[in-house]
Every structure is written in C-alpha cells, then in structure tokens.
Amino acid sequence: MIYIIPWVLVAIAALASKVFPLSLTLLFSLNVWCLSMPHSFSTFTRHDLRTLRIGVKATLLYLVFFISLSMLMNRIGLVTIYSFYFYWQQFHYTKQNMGIGIWKKTDRSLRERSIDYSFYFFISIFSIAASFYGGGIQFFGYSLLNPFIWFTLSPFSVIMLNLILLGFYVYLRPGYWKMALTHTLIYTLAYLVLDNFVLGWVLLNIFHNSQYLFFMNQEEKNLRFFLYAALLSVGFYMVLHASFLIAASIAIMLAMNFTHYIFDGLVWKKNFHLKSLWA
User: Fold this and answer.
1) For the chain, N or C: smaller number of CB within 10 Å?
2) What pTM did the predictor assign?
3) Backbone torsion region of residue 141, taken as left when φ is above 0, otherwise alpha when ψ lies between -120 and 50, otherwise beta
4) β-pair partners for 138
5) Which of 198, 186, 213, 188 has the alpha carbon at shortest distance from 10?
6) pLDDT tens digits for 79-111?
C-alpha cells in the first residue's frame, strides 16, 4: 500500500487542479492540515516516543528554532530563509525515500551505501537544478536562491539522465527497484514534467506526507499515533490562527517543520528499531 496509496492521492490532486483551476490553494491547505501537520507531529507520537522526556526535548528544540527564525527574518530576509527551508525539505524527502527503499536492510556495505546515496541524491539534485532552466523559481512569493548557476540542464535531458540512473541502480541493486522507480517518477513529475512549479511541489508534498503516515501505520499497526498527531494538529491550527500570533505565523510554521526534520533525522535514527531507515 505504501507504494500505491500516495500515488492515488497525487493523481486525485493533479486531476482536481486540472479540472478546477482555482483548487490549488485548497489543495495546499488540505495538504498542510490533513497530511503535512499530522505527518510532522507523528514524528513525536510513535508509541515509544510518547514520553515527557521526548516532549520536553521537542518543545525546547521548537523554541530554539522559533526564536532563531524570529530574530533572523529581519536580518537575512525571507528569500534566504525560504530557500534554506526548500533545500532542507528536499534533503529530508530524499532521505525518507531512500530510507524506506532500503527498509530493514541493516547490513549494507560501504559500496551499497555509496550506490544508494549517489542514486537518490543525484535524481533529486538534477531534477531540482533543471527546474531553474527557464529562469527563476517563485516559492511562496519569493525567488529561490539558485545554487545550480554553474550548470544548466534542460528538463528533457534530465528526464533521460534520470532514466539512465534508474537503469544503473536497478542493475546494481535489483532488490530495491520499487522505491528507486518511485523516487525517480515523483521527482521527474514534480520538477521536470509539470510546467507549474508550485503544483509540482504540492504534489511532491502530498506524496511525501501520505507515504510517511502509511509507513507509520505499517510499523505501529494501529492508528493511535495518528489520533494523537491529529489532535496536536488541531491545537496547532488554533494557536496559529490566534489574532496576536498571525504576524509570527511564518516562524511558527517553519519552526515546526525544522523540529520535525531534526527529530526525523536524529531521534528516529537513534531509537527506531529499523536503524537503517535514515542511515
């Protein structure tokens, strides 16, 4: 199901945006509050992480990010902050795909690890780089900083390159073709095939968030983690929409995402019994 349901949701979202041109804003909101926030909170609601100690750590880390962002926004500007957010997010997405792709494989050799990292990150990097081919990219109303100015690749050439990389990877790692194909397809669709960057980004978000939640359900074997995550999401929504916090909404949201990224990359890796997930 983890290889099917996320694609079903992506297809429904893509069709909705095609049939109802004004639905992109609605899709974004539904993704944020029905998938993204529950998926972020589920990092902390896994059965063995629902402890006071973990809650305190997460809260303190969140406050560090929130205070730092609040102080930096006026100094370095939202262009830099949004760019940092976007690229860290893509790193996080790539690591999740790779982690699920090598699920339960705890004895990878150095050669196998090198092949896995090279494939997944090359697909992501080349796809994102090619999305700048036609010029700058607008992200939440701001132009993303372009770290790929030293090389330009057309979307078509990267599609061909992605297929070649996929072929090599499947040849070298035949037992892990499902996620390799999935990773190639979702990044190719989001950043190379679609001519609407925002729509591609939203579809990639929907895929990532739903994939994470289905993986959690697969491991937890019950939906209690999601119930807690959903309740926290509702509370977070109410806090975010309090009139006196509206001005700080960007810092509030980004701090939540950054806290999730840290916990997902460090706490899960340390505590999760499938230690290869984000290794």
Assistant:
1) N
2) 0.92
3) left
4) 143
5) 186
6) 999 999 999 999 999 999 998 998 777 678 899
